[in-house]
Amino acid sequence: MTPTPDILSAFTPTGKLRAAINLGNPILAHTDAGGQAGGVSVDLAREFARLLDVELELVVVDAAGKSVDVVVAEQADIGFFAIDPVRGAHIAFTAAYVLIEGYYLVRDDAPLRSNAQVDDARNRVVVGKGSAYDLYLSRTLAQARIVRAPTSPAVVDTFLEQGAEVAAGVKQQLEADARRLGGLRLLDERFMVIRQAMGTPKARGAEAAAFLARFVEAMKAGGFVAAALERHGIEGASVAPAEESPAKETIQG
């Protein structure tokens, strides 16, 4: 892949490639001992900057909604998001590069045993504000009430502080919180699969969006994404299939 002058201009209006990195998703981004951002999404951003032969600037945020906001406002040129039709109004998504499972968490003594029991008027479900889980469950839960924590990593603490009935989020984050706090358990099946993609503002044009989509397919096919997941010790996430359509609704299962 060789970027044309028009492609380069579309992605680097400031002369640098600005990549929004969401630390609220521990599977894809984190900070190291020195406070620097790292992870699968950072690796992909660096590789895309290398392809464009430009300097990379990371725009680091702590929540998915903030990542969306900075890309929509064109304060960043690319970002890493769960595909969602609401976000798709202003962001051109690639196909997914990673699939991540979403689960519910409850207290050990809770009467809830299955996902089907969650959508009940007696239940409050805590999600990270603006996260894919927030967007998805806001559309699909008809009776349960959504409670929004400021970020996804704060979901379980908010769930406990407010005495809510259910927490929803990334399986690995919930499992880590359950080990940390004790007295908690995950329900026995996922309620959704999050399809993580790259994206760029739609205002950058169809040619730029298509170039970014080809980049993601090359990163999957060439083993870059798989190697990044292994390098960062990520379990429970898988490389998405080739040429998965970004227009499909989030998978439920």
Description:
The chain has helices spanning 5-11, 40-52, 64-72, 132-140, 155-161, 171-181, 206-221, 224-231, and strands spanning 17-22, 30-31, 37-38, 56-61, 79-82, 91-107, 124-128, 145-149, 166-170, 184-186, 192-201, 237-239. The protein is an alpha/beta fold. Strands 5, 6, 7, 8, 9, 10, 11 and 12 form an 8-stranded mixed beta sheet that branches. Strands 1-4 form a two-stranded parallel sheet. A hairpin with a 5-residue loop joins strand 2 (30-31) and strand 3 (37-38). The longest helix has 16 residues, at 206-221.
Question: Quick recap of the structure?
Answer:
The protein has 253 residues and is α/β, with parallel strands linked by helices. Helix content is 32%, strand content 27%.
Question: How do the helices and strands line up, and which of them pair or pack?
Answer:
Blueprint: H1 5-11, E1 17-22, E2 30-31, E3 37-38, H2 40-52, E4 56-61, H3 64-72, E5 79-82, E6 91-107, E7 124-128, H4 132-140, E8 145-149, H5 155-161, E9 166-170, H6 171-181, E10 184-186, E11 192-201, H7 206-221, H8 224-231, E12 237-239
Parallel strand pairs: 1-4, 7-8, 7-9
Antiparallel strand pairs: 2-3, 5-11, 6-9, 6-10, 6-11, 6-12
Number of helices: 8
Query: Helix/strand-derived class?
Result: alpha/beta
Arithmetic mean of pLDDT? 91
Oligomer: single chain
Helix content: 25-40%
Q: Uncertain segments of ≥5 residues (pLDDT<50)?
A: 244-253
Quick one: biggest sheet?
8 strands, mixed
Q: What is the total tally of β strands?
A: 12
Q: Over the alpha carbons, how many angstroms does the gyration radius reach?
A: 18 Å
Order of helices and strands: HEEEHEHEEEHEHEHEEHHE
